[in-house]
Design goal:
The complex is a heterodimer of chains A (329) and B (652). Chain A is an alpha+beta fold. In chain A, 28% of the residues lie in helices and 28% in strands. In chain A, helix 1 packs antiparallel against helix 2. Chain A is elongated and about 65 Å long. Chain B has four domains: 121 residues, no CATH class; 281 residues, P-loop containing nucleotide triphosphate hydrolases (Rossmann fold); 93 residues, no CATH class; 84 residues, no CATH class. Classes of the chains: A alpha+beta (329), B alpha/beta (652). Chains A and B meet through helix 8 of A and helix 1 of B.
């Protein structure tokens, strides 16, 4: 999909805009539910990884996705957003190099159709672009419309990732693992697969409080917590999880170097937790710099992101220049 | 001559351009996979596509390469490995890397309008591409092709012959070849030997006849050009690919002066099986006097000495001459000249006529006498005091023949003389078009010595400059070799249309003359293997690396091992050998009996006459010129007269 549909709606009378919201170049994980049940220990404990043998799967696929969006025009005060979502799996095998084995991308227009003039609606329909609507309540207020649009973009990206992961799981080799950037519990297939691991970098949801919370967030480097089961909420599937500290947080921040790992809710996961943790600690290097989340971002995930960004439309990135009015010179 | 590419290989790279590294009409950048056959010197083809670029093809040669990863700073690698270099290699994932190459444009099709290189796919060049890229298509085909194979361009598993244009190598469009490289790898000599073979086999018939004169200035380098050398299968394959026959030169003529004894040749080609091919190079007074400037320009030649030498050359040598004291002279040899000098000095002394003779001051006469006699002393063996000379076959040069003049063991003064005279004679004959060939390649090694960038303007240097600047009109072509190009006179190297580089010294590459080369090209030059060269030619926009096969001749060092030089023969045996060479019927004992107790100079003179005449009966001719034995008569006591006045304070 090119900019042709944008040109079409501009021709239909939409006032052009060029606004890349701050959050559009990154992604924020969906809000998570809180509360957890102990699985490995009666209460959350800290376990050292020293001496734990690392799992060393011969081939590992790393899945990640990106989302980029831009307000391309306004019909009255109703924004029309152009969004690009993409996801890819890059497989690492014996030569330690990553190669793309699956990828998908989608472009969508996000707006509220019933608030658009007929001509604009007609133009959108004529281009064939997939249109996603924001709730009617949010459409009238730009201050609410943009967060609503952002939510739709995130949903689209998550759905794309899920579809790609599920397709890959169907063909996953017997000794191949799949590491997903984010939660597994969105997908029944992912959350039940024995060789799928979710790596969560954001910690919007808290599962513990009091001493357990303190133990989780002050986890020493190269330690993990005992395995717990986040409490189910909504459509989320049952999953096992634990925290893992990749880098010492002292001198930085409580969340510095802190990952939350997800794997299927199965006794085997408890047995594998030390080995999976040791494996992920090994993935600290090479550093995922210059990404500022490098303390929690595994290099292969960073690589997938780099790959997707390199292939994304360039005009969705913030313009490097000033947004001052153009002088015409 | 060029094989058509039988398939279209997939692209191996893609042109990229950024604001910092844009594509220009003369340079572009492209990336390849990490595993690539591309390297410095590789020729690539870029195909344009899309509006404005469709159909545009650009050829380039890789001049530099870069590799880097997404590592933001080296410190991050240290942190990731926790300070342990060994752990850095154990990272589960290899960082993203890039192989980025810089290429210089060789040619664009179409050539107008000249535009930046399109951001298209990059392909490895095929044979056809190489011909196009190097503009060889202009002289490879047509009714009168002028292509001379110089080597094979090899890259990425592809191999393509590279040709020089005879019109630009041997004239008249451009001419001359200069080759630089460190000593000891035999690359320079080998390259010239191979190229001469290639020229002899591919010199276009419409351009006439060609020969080469090679000055062997060190060791046995050029002493075995007629003997086959050891070749490997790879060499033979390269010969086949270049359509050049792997064989020694069919016609080689060797010339070397005698040693001081006047009968043993001063060359390393004295093995009994080979020495018969070596002709002596002996020059007399006339040959030397014409090039007196070579010998006298070093320190104290002045107008007066010059005038006296001219007087000798014009009025005395080869003429009946009255010395003014009643003596009649016919000066043909150094011995005759010495007799004239003695007569002049004695005459002045006896007559008491002051210190001038025929307007020439006696000090000038003494100086010239001193210098000339010094020549016959220092170059004894090359310059003969008496007897006829033996010279190169001026006017009878053969087509596709190599004339090797071995002056490796000759005094530097003698080397200068040989070089100056031989080149002057070549020039004279080429001007008159009566040399026997239409073009002559003159190969001179050690240009650092003969045409240095600094130092006095010697006759030899002036002559090399003259060849460099005007030789191409005559068909007189200089193939010069040296270790340090930066130290050779810039007009000599600057006039060379074709420049060849073997492995170069790093210090030499740091000199300003190599600033046009990229650092990567310099590194490649500094580590170039034997058998690989970098070639610049007027048709090539950029230097090209080629590989050439080992020459099909015996290398000097191998030749000396296979044909070890014979020890110098005693005088009598050496005379016998020379006579036997002229006439197989000559009986050694007969010769030895004849020359027993005879003065060596008389024997040498008779031998020289015999050599020059090449009679049917060599012994009879030799015997006749040697003359009868004359009994010694005691010399009468000489009456001496004290000088009336002191002639001069000159210490000569």
């Amino acid at each position: 999909m090119s900019r042709s549909w944008v040109d079409a709606i501009l021709a239909a009378g939409v006032v052009p805009a060029s606004h890349v919201p701050e959050a559009s170049v990154g992604r924020v994980d969906l809000e998570e539910f809180t509360g957890a049940d102990p699985v490995e220990d009666p209460e959350l404990r800290v376990r050292s990884l020293v001496g734990a043998p690392a799992l060393a799967p011969p081939s590992v696929g790393f899945l990640d996705g990106i989302e980029q969006w831009r307000v391309v025009g306004y019909a009255g005060v109703t924004p029309i957003v152009r969004a690009h979502v993409a996801a890819a799996i890059r497989l690492r095998e014996g030569d330690r190099r990553l190669r793309t084995v699956a990828e998908n991308a989608d472009e969508l227009a996000i707006t509220r159709l019933d608030r658009l003039p007929d001509a604009v609606r007609g133009a959108l329909a004529g281009t064939g672009v997939r249109v996603v609507e924001i709730p009617a309540d949010d459409a009238g207020q730009p201050a609410r419309a943009l967060p609503a649009a952002r939510l739709e973009v995130q949903k689209a990206r998550a759905a794309l990732e899920r579809r790609l992961a599920e397709r890959r799981l169907a063909r996953l080799g017997s000794d191949e693992w799949l590491v997903v950037d984010g939660v597994l519990s969105d997908s029944p297939a992912l959350s039940a697969h024995p060789r799928a691991v979710g790596v969560v970098k954001s910690h919007g949801a808290e599962y513990f409080e009091g001493p357990e919370l303190e133990r989780a967030l002050t986890l020493p480097v190269l330690h993990r917590t005992s395995v717990f089961r986040p409490k189910r909420r909504g459509a989320r599937r049952e999953i096992y999880s634990w925290y893992l500290r990749l880098w010492p947080w002292e001198g930085n921040d409580l969340l510095y170097g802190l990952l939350r790992v997800e794997a299927r809710a199965h006794p085997g996961t408890v047995a594998l937790a030390p080995r999976i943790s040791a494996w992920l600690v090994g993935e600290r290097a090479p550093l995922a710099t210059p990404d500022r989340r490098w303390d929690r971002l595994l290099y292969p995930i960073y690589d997938v992101e780099s790959y997707l960004r390199a292939r994304a439309p360039r005009d969705l990135l913030p313009a490097p220049g000033s947004r001052l009015p153009r002088t015409g010179t | 001559m060029i094989d058509k590419a039988s398939f279209q290989p997939p692209p191996i790279g893609r042109v990229v351009a950024t604001e910092q590294k844009p594509a220009t009409p003369h340079q572009f950048h492209f990336w390849t996979a990490n595993e690539t056959s591309i390297g410095i010197g590789a020729i690539v083809r870029v195909e344009g596509f899309g509006a404005g670029d469709s159909g545009r093809v650009v050829y380039g040669v890789v001049t530099d390469g870069f590799a880097y990863s997404d590592l933001a700073t080296p410190l991050h690698d240290v942190v990731g490995a926790e300070g342990d270099p060994a752990r850095a290699a154990e990272h589960p994932t290899v960082r993203q890397e890039i192989r980025l190459w810089t290429a210089a444009v060789l040619r664009q099709r179409p050539e107008e309008p000249l535009q930046p290189v399109p951001l298209g796919a990059v392909h490895v060049a095929s044979d056809v591409d190489v011909a196009q890229a190097l503009r060889m298509d202009a002289y490879l085909g047509g009714e009168q092709p002028t292509a001379i194979p110089v080597g094979l361009y090899t890259s990425g598993g592809l191999e393509a012959p590279v040709y020089l244009d005879a019109d630009f190598l041997l004239g008249p469009e451009a001419a001359h070849l200069n080759i630089s490289g460190v000593s000891g790898l035999a690359t320079k000599t080998s390259a010239v030997e191979f190229l001469l073979a290639s020229i002899f086999q591919h010199f276009p018939p419409h351009k006439g006849r060609v020969a080469a004169v090679c000055f062997n200035v060190k060791g046995p380098d050029l002493c075995f050009l007629d003997q086959p050398g050891a070749l490997e299968d790879e060499d033979r394959r390269r010969y086949e690919r270049l359509a050049v026959q792997a064989q020694p030169f069919e016609r080689v003529r060797y010339y070397a002066p005698f040693k001081a004894d006047g009968v043993n040749l001063n060359t390393l080609r004295t093995h009994p099986d080979l020495v018969g091919d070596v002709e002596p190079l002996v020059w007399g007074l006339r040959e030397v006097l014409d090039y007196a400037e070579v010998l006298l320009n070093r320190d104290d030649i002045d107008a007066k000495a010059d005038a006296f030498i001219d007087f000798l050359a014009d009025r005395v040598v080869d003429k009946e001459f009255d010395d003014g004291f009643g003596g009649a002279h016919r000066v043909v040899t150094f011995a005759d000249l010495e007799r004239l000098f003695r007569s002049i000095f004695d005459g002045l002394e006896l007559a008491g006529r002051g210190d001038t003779w025929r307007t020439h001051h006696i000090a000038t006469i003494r100086k010239v006498r001193n210098r000339l006699s010094n020549i016959s002393t220092r170059c004894k063996g090359l310059v003969t005091d008496d007897g006829p000379s033996s010279d190169l076959p001026w006017g009878r040069f053969e087509d596709r023949a190599v004339y090797v003049v071995d002056v490796a063991n000759v005094d530097p003064l003698g080397q200068d003389l040989v070089f100056a005279r031989a080149v002057s004679k070549l020039r004279e004959h080429l001007e008159r078009r009566d040399l026997g060939v239409d073009a002559v390649v003159v190969f001179v090694d050690e240009l650092n010595k003969y045409a240095p960038g600094d130092g006095p303007d010697t006759y030899v240097k002036k002559m090399l400059l003259d060849i460099s600047e005007r030789g191409r009109y005559l068909g007189l072509v200089l193939f010069g070799a040296e270790q340090f190009r930066s130290q050779v006179h810039r007009r000599v190297v600057g006039n060379a249309g074709t420049i060849v580089f073997g492995r170069m010294d790093s210090d030499e590459l740091a000199t300003p003359g190599y600033q046009v080369l990229s650092p990567a090209t310099k590194i490649k030059l500094a580590t170039l293997p034997i058998g690989e060269l970098m070639v610049r030619h007027p048709h090539f926009t950029q230097p090209i690396f080629v590989r050439f096969p080992r020459p099909g001749v015996l290398r000097g060092r191998d030749g000396v091992e296979r044909f070890p030089p014979a020890a110098d023969l005693p005088f009598e045996d050496a005379v016998v050998r020379q006579l036997v060479k002229l006439d197989r019927r000559v009986r050694p004992n007969q010769v030895k009996d004849l020359i027993a107790d005879r003065r060596e100079e008389d024997v040498r003179r008779a031998l020289a006459h015999t050599r020059q005449a090449r009679p049917q009966d060599a012994f009879a001719h030799f015997k006749k010129h040697l003359g009868g034995r004359v009994a010694a008569v005691p010399a009468a006591a000489r009456e001496s007269v004290a000088p009336l006045n002191r002639i001069s304070d000159e210490p000569y």
